Amino acid sequence: MVANSIEYVLGIDGGGTKCHARLENLAGEVLAECITGPANPAQDTAEALASITQAMHALPVQAGLPPRMLQQTRAVLGLAGISVPAYAAIVRQWTLPVSNVTFTTDLHIACAGAHGTDTGAIIITGTGSSAFVTTSQGPRILGGHGFPLGDKASGAWLGWRALSYTLETLDALHPPSGLSQAICQQAGTSDAAQLVAQSLHLRSAGYAAFAPLVFAQAQLGDHNARDILAEGGDYLRQLAAQIATHKPARFSLIGGLAKPWLPWLPSDLTTQLSAPLGSPVEGAVALARGDIFEPTPGKLQHV
After folding, report:
1. In this protein, which residues make up the domain named ATPase BadF/BadG/BcrA/BcrD type (predicted)?
2. With contact defined as beta carbons under 8 Å apart, do 52 and 39 qualify?
3. Among 44, 174, 221, 269, which residue's CB has the most CB atoms within a 10 Å radius?
């Protein structure tokens, strides 16, 4: 139990590309907001801790408040990767500038932000991809197995598929196309060996940097780009079908690639979707303030 009374709430949305943090007072006034580096403990535990710590230190400075205010702050951190128990155990051992901390998944805060309630469903497609739905037996996560084993229809997957197709094109297995040319142009090489060398140590965000080219070339009529989107779209359709069996009150598609995906999805999926009410970081702040619900066992992991 923290001795100091709570006067502020802090929410963090931590993923493979960035850490988005927001500080508010109990009245809901936004005092500060910042973005730092990647914060997925399953990808790089030390980097995630550094990004989160940096954000927590930056917020009071930005708000013009003394550092000691962090001891009067309740925080909810929604992090990618901690649905894996081993990484959930690691983050619970962290020493952070805010001592009153609750950890949960990025999916949980995203669902809370999208629906403003403890119930509903989401599909996230950004750097990674996954789905979350509340059921009568509790929350259920679909996908979210991490790249390259999972994350289908994500930015990382789209970029990986486009790079793989481009390498096959450079091997003369396919005729050159707008997609392969765009990939080579962005990579700065049309040499297969150099393209492989550049890709060997890419993480999810590195692959995801090529994803916009797939949407752009599909829009221009490139059938290879459209084939990739058809495969990814079918996966999202299957996720949605599984979610529908739980009859969620609201269902949203969110994430950095949600808008680009919409024109390429079947109408039987898009007609199910409701516009998200808020962002994941807003969901984290609302959870910290207790606007949505009191944390219950099995949903949040307390430190």
Report:
1. 10-259
2. yes
3. 269
Average pLDDT value for the chain: 92
Percent of the chain with pLDDT over 70: 94
Angle between helices 178-187 and 192-199 (to 10 degrees): 60
Residue 124 is inside which H or E element, if any? strand 121-125
Crossing angle between the packed helical segments 155-170 and 211-219, to the nearest 10 degrees: 70
Cα 184 versus chain centre, distance: 27
In this prediction the pTM is 0.85
Under 8 Å between Cβ of 69 and 48: no
For strands 30-36 and 138-143, give the pairing. Answer: unpaired
pLDDT confidence bin for 25, thresholds 50/70/90: very high
Homologous superfamily assigned to 8-116+277-302: ATPase, nucleotide binding domain (3.30.420.40)
pLDDT of amino acid 147: 87
DSSP count for the chain of H helices, then E strands: 12, 10
